C-alpha cells in the first residue's frame, strides 16, 4: 500500500538535523528510495508523543516518525549510531508504508464482526473465548509486524538488529529466521495467527493461575491508610477468618502489630 504523505508542519532544529543526517546515511548506503521517502515524513526526537513514552514509533495518523533522544547519546556522527538509525528508520517507515495498523484493524473486524474497534462498549457482544482470542491478537500484533519486516533485512541489517544497543545495553530485535525459520515467507496476517496461537496459551494459563490464586478482598479504603497498614491488614485476613473480627477489632489488631509486632503473621 502506498501512503503518500504531505507533511507540512515544521520540525524543531534538532529533529530536522537528525533527519538530514539519516537521509544522507541512507543515500550513502544505497537506500536512495528510502532517503527520498523519508523527506515526506515528519521526524521528531522526543521522550514521548501525545502523552505516550516511546523508543521508536511511526504514527499512522499523521506520518510522524518518533525517536527517543537516547538513540543519539553517542552523537549523530557515531558509526554505530548511524547504522542502527538506518535500520530503525527503514523499519518504522515500512510499518507505515505496509499499513500494518490498518491491516490489523481489518483482520480483527473479520475475526470479530460484532466488535466495533472504536467503541469499547461493544466488547459486551463478545463471548469469554472471543475476549481471550482478541487479547491474543492484540498481544501478537507488534511482534508479528516486526517479524514480517525482518524478512526484508539484508545480512548486514540482521547483524545490526541482533546487536542493537540502547543506553549501553544490548536490547536486540526480532529476526524471524532466528526465532521461527519455519515461518519464513509468510505474510503478516499468517504470522499474526502463529504468534496469536502462542499468546492465547499464555493468556489461558494466566487466567487459570488467577482463578487458582484469587486476590484477597480488601475491606478498607487503601488511599486512607499507609502501605504498611494495608499489607498487615491483608496478611491478617489471609491467615484468619476475618468474619470473626469486627472492623473495629481488625483496626486494633493492625495497630498492635504495627506498634510492637505482637501479631504472628508468618
Describe the structure.
The chain is mostly helical. The protein has three domains: 97 residues, Zincin-like; 116 residues, no CATH class; 39 residues, no CATH class. The protein is built from ten helices and seven strands. The strands form three sheets. It has a three-stranded mixed β-sheet with strand order 1-5-4. Strands 2-3 form a two-stranded antiparallel sheet. A hairpin with a 2-residue loop joins strand 2 and strand 3. Helix 5 crosses helix 8. The longest helix has 25 residues. It is extended, with a radius of gyration of 25 Å. The termini are far apart. The N terminus is likely disordered.
Give a quick rundown of the structure.
The protein is mainly alpha-helical and 266 residues long.
Overall pLDDT score: 84
Major sheet: size, sense and barrel closure? 3 strands, mixed
Instruction: Tell me what portion of residues adopts beta-strand conformation.
Output: 5-15%
Number of structural units classed as domains: 3
Shape: extended
Helix content: 40-55%
- Count of alpha/pi helices: 10
Order of the strands making up the biggest sheet: 1-5-4
Low-confidence stretches: 1-8, 216-223
Helix-strand sequence: HHEEEEEHHHHEEHHHH
Radius of gyration: 25 Å
Q: How many angstroms separate the termini?
A: 61 Å
Number of strands: 7
Structural class estimated from helices and strands: mainly alpha
